[in-house]
Amino acid sequence: MKYIFYTYLALVLVSCSNNKNSSSPRWEQAARGVWKVSVGDPDKVNLLSELNIVPNLDAIAEIRESPLPFGREEVEIEVVDNRTFLRFPLEESEKIFGLGLNFKTVEQRDRILRLHVDHYGGRDDGRTHAPVPFFVSSRGYGVLINAARYIDVWVGTGVRKDSEHPPVARDRNSDLDWTAKPYSDNLEILIPAGGAEVIVFSGPTMLDVVRRFNLYNGGGCLPPKWGLGFWHRVPTLYTDKEIEEEVKEFEEKGFPLSVIGLEPDWMTAAYPCTYEWDPGRFPEPAAFQQTMKERNIRTNLWINPYISPQGELYDKIEPYTSSHTVWCGLVPDYTMPQAQDLLKQHFRKHQLDIGVSGYKMDENDGYDFWLWPDVATFPSHTPAEQIRQIYGSLMQKITTEMYEEENIRTYGLVRAGNAGTSSFPFVLYNDYYNHRDFITALINSSFIGVFWTPEVRASHTSEEWLRRMQTVCFSPLAMLNAWADGTKPWSFPDVAEQVNEVARLRMSLIPYLYSSFADYAFKGIPPVRAMNLEEGYRADVVLKEVSFDATANPYAMALKQEVKDQFMVGEYLLVAPLFEGEKERQVILPQGKWYDFYTGECVGEGEVITASPGLSKIPVYVKDGAVIPLYPETAKLDGTKYPLEIRHYGEKPGTYSLYDDDGESYNYRKGEYMRIPLEVSVDASGKKEGKVETSDIERSWSFSDYRFVFY
Amino acid sequence: MKYIFYTYLALVLVSCSNNKNSSSPRWEQAARGVWKVSVGDPDKVNLLSELNIVPNLDAIAEIRESPLPFGREEVEIEVVDNRTFLRFPLEESEKIFGLGLNFKTVEQRDRILRLHVDHYGGRDDGRTHAPVPFFVSSRGYGVLINAARYIDVWVGTGVRKDSEHPPVARDRNSDLDWTAKPYSDNLEILIPAGGAEVIVFSGPTMLDVVRRFNLYNGGGCLPPKWGLGFWHRVPTLYTDKEIEEEVKEFEEKGFPLSVIGLEPDWMTAAYPCTYEWDPGRFPEPAAFQQTMKERNIRTNLWINPYISPQGELYDKIEPYTSSHTVWCGLVPDYTMPQAQDLLKQHFRKHQLDIGVSGYKMDENDGYDFWLWPDVATFPSHTPAEQIRQIYGSLMQKITTEMYEEENIRTYGLVRAGNAGTSSFPFVLYNDYYNHRDFITALINSSFIGVFWTPEVRASHTSEEWLRRMQTVCFSPLAMLNAWADGTKPWSFPDVAEQVNEVARLRMSLIPYLYSSFADYAFKGIPPVRAMNLEEGYRADVVLKEVSFDATANPYAMALKQEVKDQFMVGEYLLVAPLFEGEKERQVILPQGKWYDFYTGECVGEGEVITASPGLSKIPVYVKDGAVIPLYPETAKLDGTKYPLEIRHYGEKPGTYSLYDDDGESYNYRKGEYMRIPLEVSVDASGKKEGKVETSDIERSWSFSDYRFVFY
């Protein structure tokens, strides 16, 4: 066991060479391979300033060092007219990722975004739940624009007269090489403020950049183990008795269930909210929590930020609220400690103290109508725009801290986040419901330090239902959200067994998933990841010529086709969901041999294969040499120690560092955790042999025994 | 004849009562019933500052006076954090119109907009070709936010804690009166600048407000008479000979034609542009212009703003251009007189001097990609955001002035405009192509001092083709734009005759239309108008209950249904287009009796009627007592004097002030125009008698004779 020491090391000031005018950028080293660059007069409140996060400098220091791929003088920053302008160089083959939770595109070069917290509106224009102003370049560096402002980004679209790599002017009609988007060699940014701080992260690989970014934000979150089980949100009008019936039904059907989510009407009033139990539906909330606890079920409560005059919090928090109301509810100014403390007190009294496990925090994202306008004023004098950009982050911070203070881990849902939230145990979700786009969001979440769930709500067909269930089980939060539709996992009887099967597969994967999340917490490696962060993966954007159309495509733009429907889970698994109507799909395998998860068969090597596993399976592939620790399918997350199945795939020898801890508290931060080395050797004849210290298993929190299975 | 005196009267300073801090608003009377209100430190460049427009104070003074419907203290303005915040009170039944060229909504209360010059992207979110920050209230006042900035507007959506008319907080589930959008009693605005000027216009009616607004901007434009004929834009690769053939074909088919539009490839290079004739397709441009002139055809040339290195303008204008290029072309800084003069010189030499009648000015609107980014810098130091908001206005101003300097009227097309352009003879258009939404834009254009054409390009069916042709003939610019599709008016043979019929109807309406445009120029009355500007019109927005849907409508919002598909043309005509697939439609008639334009039959009185005129007719209704002057259908706009048919509809006596002038020059501004009074009296028995001074007709430019026709 290794003791990780979390302190904030004094930052070494590396003086800035260039001071030609007041807005010359100041460079300052913030961690190994991390630099803060500031210019002008940055806002007091930024994306990170209010979150109380502590960079994990030790873990950052363990990442191999790499210089920035350009000189500091190539980064231009200046302040004009109360706006801050930034420019980064782009190389011809360079790719840019990140820049918010996009739903339709992974590569962001050639796009124009206005990063603005909002409900995603069907276009990758920057308005999204987590418009994190952080980009990762394929040249091996990344940049966070640490400003809580609506930030405009032109990613390789603007062409400067003084460019060193100018494109050639062409006549649209006579020259076949004319293009609607001439080559641009820079990425430009506009921050509507009189100064800003940016944080530059070095590589060498994109995964290193992402890791540095996450660790700088305090590392990734480690959810409680129960958080990785199956979640089910019940219809909003359900009573305690109806929920107990629902839980019983899950038990009877043998369907895994770890968390029950309650929707608005658990409260005396919602939209705006009291955060107090409705005495009609929940006459004895503490007893109800106790009943749930006995059945090994956690409860998660829906809330939104707006405070109802019908509740006891209203009068107390009123002095710390905005000029404007939302749904007639007060909007607390959560940059103020007073407002934070009042919320914590109220939550403790009504929820935490009786055993509620966490929250689903809705409507902190906007859609403009369901949020304060930017003309609102707040008692802390923080501009409304800035409050909007960090409101979801603040709500995550407050609830996380409240549970931390009790040494209890929480895991919940939230509809808005931003930079700096990777250590907060919250998963983003929304009302949008496109299965393919949900996968693209899952991929994009890994560049920007957030989690996303492609939650299942309803479906038109049993095929769609099953396909959605299959993917959600390979996401950070496997959830059926039946708040409005009253669906149940078995709502489509013809696929009920297959749905159960994939949910049980999720349960068996928990040792593997939990270790993957530990890698997020300790090393900053996202547990669910874009293929682009995987070594040996190559898939370039393909331009598809489309025909000119005076209305639909007047500039005769080629359509970009990119791979945005397959992703990595943990160290070894490649998941390639199928969608409704598909009998087969193409999968791009990175370099090396890959094996079918279910059969162990070799499926290919650094190539494009066609997957056609039938309706009942989601295509999952395993890297050569993978060691995968599994629970029995029937495992419940009730503290029982289960026998461990240790699978090995392929020809190469393999190792795995199995993580374990108590699964519930923050004691792991004090060193109370284990790393159990699993090892499989392969001799010249191909014979495999597994090795694990039995004493490790015996000392573990979660495992009773083990056996190796060689595929 | 009345001599209109255009001078800029010294403005009377009405001192501001309230000076409690440095950002107290300053009120200043700018004209009768018009006040300038400023606060903080307004930008030097605003929507009007660069346009050289002269308010028509005399004409404004003729509008009856009316106080503002609220006290000055009810308007709140303050500057905080380099942003300017404004608040206007809203009453419960108050309606708000205007706020840009919207395509889907007419009433703007309950909407949130960010007014931003852009290509319309399918949503009424403020990004549009003419995001004019001017609103008109049903309480009888209007406000222009005179700032060339991206302005956010919350129209009755923000609810303040300190509201005097606070809505009641309700529980979403248990209270049936819960609403997703609680009542708001204010209209709030955010200007991202450290000060601003707003201009407040009084009523009493909304039409009075609009008139004051237009007259303050110099009045409406009076197009040359030929501009009201039929326009046809030919495919981009057409040569001079092909155009001559096309013109011949129109003549042979007896189809009216006044203007031929040439698309990008008339130039040596386009995207970026040289503005110089392609010697292959147009070896003798002057001779070509002469040929067209002999056939009584004007030519209109497509351009976009970006200057090609292949042309002679490039080197000269380079010092006055932006840091960024678009399609590798220079972006002139047209706030600089040097750039304006260079463009004028170039246009004169290559176009005006050989007889070109005007331009279609494309791509000054954006779509972000086809425009400079906001990080661009300009040699005048005007911020890029401000330049974007007025670029279309500037291009209109430059070309208008160039023609004015030659005492020639022009009429053209442009893809961007803003406040202050009503006197510039340009009509907005775009690539969007929804017939219904095109009509809504036509309606909205009348609130904000711009013109819009629902141009016809192509259609899926002959029915759609005919329906589109029918509406475009009742718009400010009747045009078939075949640049990409190569369509001709007779492209659908089964409706070719009906298309010809409505085009000929357009020609016969020219005396009426031209007088209507004169009312725009002299009195500020939009020739094509929203019903809401019509006295006696009542049509409230209807809320249609729609069912809750967790994905599509999670807040269970009622759908707004409003009347946005009928409009007024001139003083007397109500036009209610039919759309593809419709056999009939409902039409809301304002108070008083209304008559069928074609038959003279009375169709109703202040009621909703069903129109089913068959495929060949567009429903047109005439107000009781209307006097409508008509040309023969076969009239050509070649200077020939035609006999006038003076129709009278209904029971009431009627008058009409028929306008006439030379149709081509600006001499009308020197008083060289006529107003010919047409009068029809009706005696007690219903007998009608027409009266017009024969000497007036004899002295006119356009009429040889007259006869009355009583319907």
Task: Put the structure in a nutshell.
Chain A has 711 residues and is α+β, with helices and mostly antiparallel strands. Chain A is 19% helix and 24% strand.
Oligomer: homodimer
Radius of gyration of chain A: 25 Å
**Greatest contact pair?**
A-B, 78 and 78 residues
- Enumerate the strands of the largest sheet of chain A in spatial order, edge to edge or round the barrel: 21-20-19-18-16-15-14-22
Task: Tell me how many strands of chain A there are.
Answer: 38
| Morphology call of chain A | globular
Unreliable spans of chain A: 1-22
**Major sheet of chain A, described briefly?**
8 strands, parallel
Report mean pLDDT of chain A, rounded to a whole number: 94
